[in-house]
Amino acid sequence: MKLTIKPDRGFGKVEVELDNAEIEKLAERYGVPPERIIEIALIGEFKESKGELEQLEKKAEELEKRVWKLEMEYAPLRYKAYGLSEDNKILAIELSGLIAENNQLRRFLRLPLNRNIELRKLISYYLQG
Fold it and tell me: For the chain, what are the domain ranges?
């Protein structure tokens, strides 16, 4: 839509190219007729924020500070958890080796083998994580 605005007196005119789809979208979004959207855009009748923006910015800053504080507390715990996870993997590998050695000694002594399925599942869990 091309809109031309001419002054009552004097020279000069203003031509504005407005996208119909955008106007319709705004009209649907705010529940007003498209003519009102055009009028608001031309007159500049926008609602000003009533100090809420400053309050929201302050609150956002406070929340960001709180997030960084919590992150500082959380980072060492995450590092310790990673260390414990790696220790669990090492212990699972050692335990797997001991089970294999135990089975080999049982074969050598011709004793029945122990098939600890639950223990093997636990070992595979720690090796994957």
Answer: 2-43, 52-128
